[in-house]
């Protein structure tokens, strides 16, 4: 058996691989440079162009570009009318921002457990948590796989709930032939550098509802309007604008938008390569009993943002921490997505107790994300596979 690097053996690779990395080419650089020397660095034509492009890609009627994915979620929660006393059902396995947006509005996140095979929010769990205070559901397309939108939309329609889809992972994913972004009441995207396409920072909300679109646009820019029909004191004076509600400055710059438009031109390329890498991992891991491969629902044609390695720790003589550290020593730098949100001490202090979502907690204790990004080469994918197999061979119980 090969000696593990963590025990003094030779690592599978000489240089480290991280779990995610942006891909920037000369077209991206040129697009940004052109915008830097244009008249508009913000509130300019690139924002409109990006919003039109997002509508084209997602099939949504409206898109609102914002400064980041967290701002997108905050505005969506505001537009949904979430406030003091309202409950919002949120996936337990997600980045904290998916729940924090409810707190920004004074509402209460109610965490729903995940499906143990897809790792997405369980529709049955959503049903069981609905009360007469429930106002909305925030469903996260975890790893890029679409949530069970048909069923979740039915639940929301039945109970008059707003469905906010957190699509931070899922740009490019198609559900039953329809792109993510055109299905939920609002879909929030993130364009952070680890995500499938990036603007450095950036976010957007898409919707088919004109009323929501108007609110989102208003909240993005301080609550200030230049539309006479929206003013309490309408005038056509050239200088006049009026703040009619409390909003924020969540605008994206034209520099970010230029980069994003250029990145979105490569989305189908990115998507194709990510699918290839996922297929290579799945094929290598499918027959290893100590590994659970993520289940893909047939409705979702997924552009995967994350590849999850889930260990069946009961078949191994190590825990997730030991495996993670041993993998790092082989120069494969995994990451863990995510701590169940309510395990963060902030939420703990609000009174959320451990044990709330058993499937989410079991998932967390056994999982890590392997390298997955556009520029990852076949050889690098093979290095990751070799490292995982090396560790499994060493740690498995039934040798
Ligand atoms: C990245 C991410 C966010 C937040 O996006 P930012 O652009 O980093 O603010 C929200 N939800 C999920 C699931 C994410 O992965």
CATH-level-4 superfamily name of the largest domain: Type I PLP-dependent aspartate aminotransferase-like (Major domain)
Give the helix tally.
13
Count of the domains: 2
Approximate shape: globular
Compact overview of the structure:
The chain is 36% helix and 15% strand.
Overview of the structural elements:
The strands form four sheets. The chain has a seven-stranded mixed sheet, with helices on both faces. The chain has a three-stranded antiparallel sheet with strand order 7-6-13, with no helix packed on it. By secondary structure, the protein is an alpha/beta fold. The protein has helices at 26-36, 45-58, 69-79, 97-104, 123-129, 149-159, 210-220, 254-264, 267-285, 320-329, 345-349, 358-366, 378-395, and strands spanning 62-66, 87-91, 108-112, 134-140, 162-166, 174-175, 178-179, 186-190, 203-207, 224-225, 242-243, 291-292, 300-301, 307-311, 367-370. The radius of gyration is 22 Å and the shape is globular. It has two domains: 5-21 and 267-395, Aspartate Aminotransferase, domain 1 (Alpha-Beta Complex); 26-264, 3-Layer(aba) Sandwich (Aspartate Aminotransferase, domain 2), CATH 3.40.640. Helix 1 (26-36) packs antiparallel against helix 8 and helix 3 (69-79) crosses helix 7 (210-220). The N and C termini lie close together (11 Å). It binds pyridoxal-5'-phosphate (PLP).
